[in-house]
Amino acid sequence: MQELESLRSTISHVESVEELLGVERQFNYQVELKGRITRDMIEEISRLKGEPDWMRRLRLRMLELFEKLPTPRWVRAVEEIDLEALVHYAKPQTEAVSSWDQVPKEIREYYEKLGLPEIEAKALLGLGAQFDSEIIYFNLKKKLQELGVVMLPMEEAVKRYPELVQRYFMRVFPPEHKFAALHGALWSGGVFIYVPPGVRIEQPLETFFFIGQSMESQMEHSIVVADKGAYVHWIEGCSAPRLLKYSFHNGMVEGYAHEGATLKITTVQNWSRNVVNFNNKRAVAEAGAKVHWVEGSIGSKTTYTFPSTVLKGEGASTEIVGITAAKGPYWKENGAKVWHLAPRTSSRVVNKSISAEGGVAVYRGVVHVQRGAKYARSHVQCDSLVLDKKSATLTVPHDQVFEETAVVTHEATASTISEEKIMYLRARGFTEDDAKASIVLGFVGDILKDLPFEYAVVLSRVIELEFGRLSKVG
């Protein structure tokens, strides 16, 4: 407990991740590729990575689709993204190492301020850390290797396990919109995890993604596979310092839970304000499998993230939980999509959003029940806390039910912090800032309790810092 309080105190004196990490620094890179996205650029990325021909050809197919597909109508802030002005591949002047002492000091300091080495020592069995376009730190405990678990930087997995990677790579999430195709052409970094049949990994694995400078695009690709009866929990962390301009994040996560497996994916996104954040996330659940998503979306100027599950086999289930914080004149979408394709499948979606100081938080979701998915069950619950009159929340559910035996329900609530609540807590010794933060934490408390304790501590502190100092109430 004392160790966790020490970890919490690391960020107790700052108001945001931008204050914690400071203004972006200038770094020199081994390679930088920027400008118009052409066949030559894609070929050069593939050559630099030493990829097999199948991956080079996949990238080129994705480029063709990107050039043909229209821009999605539902995307805001896309006009702010000048793809030709961005660096699409930034390779740091360091190779992947397995000791934090070997990470260049100016980069290591970022991860130390975020408490990553401490969390790894206390809670993780495997960790990869990405800086801009490449994994620069990677460590897998020997225990996992003895169990036959594969956890590798994606570039390495593509070369060492090509047949295994090809079974899943952009097959769980095909290039169905323009930005997914763009990702497929430019992807760099990410991790591949495979857990053999019947193997249960009780401690989490993690990959942490960091954007170091303005005017970069980061497009990591991660795949997490739990084979029959296996169990794995993967944590995805994201952050950036205070950027002087903007950067574009367009990552992808593909998950696959084979028959009877359990796959948990937890994301803690704590971006700085000048990140435009797109995510492409989907998992498949076979018969009797379970997929759990937890998505904590803090920071960024614009976010689109819709964790999705395809319930492919009979008795498969999913739970998708989201926390969205929109503080300031920013637009955040954190939704969920579920496809019920087999009988007796079930889904539960819980989305909590907090809006303040002109922020807009949006839940956009889809529940699809295919004809023949008998006795499917789905429940969606959206709870919103709106902290002032300048802010807003929107709930945009879309139910597509083609099976008469299915039961699909949706409920939504919206509330505010009243003066009475503040006065009640003030009378019991709380300062006004502490009272506001306590009410917000109580609002999301049922979600925080499901996180690994170390991450619940850190995320709760981040939420306190975001919402403890508000200009006015009501």
Tell me about this structure.
This protein is α/β, with parallel strands linked by helices. It has one domain (32-429). The chain has 13 helices and 24 strands. It has helices at 2-9, 17-21, 39-49, 53-68, 105-113, 116-123, 142-146, 154-160, 162-166, 178-186, 419-426, 432-448, 453-467, and strands at residues 29-34, 87-92, 126-131, 134-140, 150-153, 191-195, 205-210, 217-218, 221-226, 231-239, 247-257, 262-270, 275-285, 290-298, 302-305, 308-311, 317-327, 331-334, 336-340, 346-356, 360-369, 377-386, 392-401, 407-415. The strands form three sheets. It has a ten-stranded mixed β-sheet. Strands 13-15-18-21-19-16 form a six-stranded parallel beta barrel. A two-stranded antiparallel sheet has the order 1-2. Strand 3 (126-131) and strand 4 (134-140) form a beta hairpin. The longest helix has 17 residues, at 432-448. The radius of gyration is 22 Å and the shape is globular. This is FeS assembly protein SufB. It holds the Pfam family SUFBD_core. Residues 211-443 form the SUF system FeS cluster assembly SufBD core domain. InterPro entries: Fe-S_cluster_assembly_SufBD, SUF_FeS_clus_asmbl_SufB, SUF_FeS_clus_asmbl_SufBD_core, SUF_FeS_clus_asmbl_SufBD_sf, SufBD_N.
